[in-house]
Amino acid sequence: MKPAEFKHPLRILLAWIVISLCSTPLHSHAEEARPQEEWNKLSETEKEQIRQNFREWKQLTPEERSELKERYQRFRNLPPERKAELKRRFERYRSLSPEQKKELKDRIKRFQRLPKEERSRRIERIRERRNRR
Hints:
This protein is mainly alpha-helical.
């Protein structure tokens, strides 16, 4: 499975982080209690979703895990306005119907099959249109 094909890459990575924090001993007692307190605040449904995400994480190859960690780190290093834009886009994607998501994925696949020069031309046209706004 390629990282671009992950169903929920960020959720899988976040589950790994949460479970790692909950199972890793920390230096001070106060710090140690924080992840456990946060875990205890979650509903059983949320806990099960995290466990499921973690099971998916464990099934990834080391290369896939590494790529997801790198993507997450790049996201964390983005300026706040860029992070906010990406979050808005992600929420917009999540609000699409399953049919709309399928159509979008199909369009992306068709785009990726284009020759590199044609992809570059189309990207440039999109940028030009955005700059005119």
